[in-house]
Amino acid sequence: MKKTIKDYTYRDKKVLVRCDLNVPMDDNSNITDDTRILESLQTINYLIDNQAKIIILSHLGKIKTAEDKKHNTLYPVYLKLKELLDTNVYFSKETRGEELEDKVSKLQNGEVLLIENTRYEDYPDKLESSCNQNLAKYWASLGDIFINDAYGTCHRAHASNVGIATYLPSAIGFLVEKEITAIDSILNEDTHPYIAIMGGKKISDKTLVIDNLVNKCDQLLLGGGMCFTFLKAKGINVGLSIVDNDNLEYCQKILSKYQDKIILPLDIITQNKEIKDIDSLTDEDIGYDIGPKTIELFENILSKAKRVIINGPMGIYEDPSFKKGTVAIYETIKNHHIKALIGGGDSAASANLLGYHDCFYHISTGGGATLEYLSGKELPGITSISEREG
């Protein structure tokens, strides 16, 4: 059992907190979605209330050039935290050095210091993302305790999470604990029918997820762009629909092994908004959404489900003409009060955009982290955390 934030006392302690404040911004550096900031507040406020001196680390985007630093500063996040937190909040423009150390030394109990984007250390030598031990030791030297609350980066072994945890007493924050508890509840509950739904475009980064889920679920429903690779693997003409040719052999093998579990679309909506059966597609057709026969089939299966895991939308949900399949899935979850977990970046975004945020047992904030966890892998950002004794 990993230690959690409640396993330590914090008065007068300098606490390093790895948050996921990697928020989207427009061209004028205005935050367009503050969800990740809001999700971090429970942990930050707990430490404020417990009189810690709080030092926050986070990345923002990728830093491959000096120019990237101008566009990926955490300063707008600092301004947002000043609005949201009822305490003094400070910002260090430096990720190392005298300015940072001076600001850390002056922190009072209950105050917050946000350090500039940890990935500034990735240019030019990738010190952050390669988990450079000297950088990790330096950051660890600034604090007494480390809290990892950045669930979205738990699948990465970086200096600012795994590295720091190597040198300090550590724990997971409220967000990471909530994510793991919710996902484990769905995965480990012994209720049936247990249905998995997968969509989106890619197969390449989901093969291990498919392997893990199809082995345990009662049925796996496939939609979105990924279904066309499976359909082509069955010898069906999918026209110009997106296909991952590198994974055709994988799809053939898994279809052969789990032919009774894997459910593929019967019809689709094409780019021209035509409804076409799967076996009547022309060479020019492109699938943009699942069709009405498929929706009815999926609804019938889902209506009996006790628990559901969803990863990926059924179509190009951002366009009203191609959102029906995704909406139908979410409506069925809502109307039948099914215990459902939705995970992955596109999935969470679709639930929010289409107005179904409150209809799920849990919407995971992590994309890659959730995929890796669903595939059965251990997450280094969690395995590196201190264990509870006994």
Secondary-structure arrangement, i.e. CATH architecture of the largest domain: 3-Layer(aba) Sandwich
Going across the biggest sheet, name each strand in turn. 3-4-2-1-5-6
Mean pLDDT: 95
Rg, Cα atoms, Å: 23 Å
* Spatial gap, N to C terminus: 9 Å
- Work out the strand percent: 5-15%
Q: Indicate the percent of residues in helices.
A: 25-40%
What is the ordering of alpha helices and beta strands?
A: EHEHHEHEHEHEHEHEHHEEEEHEHEHEHH
Provide the number of structural domains. Answer: 2
Taking pLDDT < 50 over at least 5 consecutive residues as the criterion, the unreliable ranges are none
Q: Class of the largest domain in CATH? A: Alpha Beta
Structure description:
With 390 residues, the protein is of the alpha/beta class. It has helices spanning 35-49, 66-71, 75-84, 98-106, 133-140, 159-165, 174-188, 207-216, 227-233, 248-257, 292-302, 324-335, 345-353, 368-374, 380-383, and strands spanning 14-18, 53-57, 89-92, 112-115, 145-148, 170-172, 194-198, 219-222, 262-263, 267-270, 275-277, 287-290, 307-311, 339-342, 362-363. The protein has 15 helices and 15 strands. α13 (345-353) links the parallel β14 (339-342) and β15 (362-363). It has 2 domains: 5-177, Rossmann fold (3-Layer(aba) Sandwich), CATH 3.40.50; 189-374, Phosphoglycerate kinase, N-terminal domain (Rossmann fold).
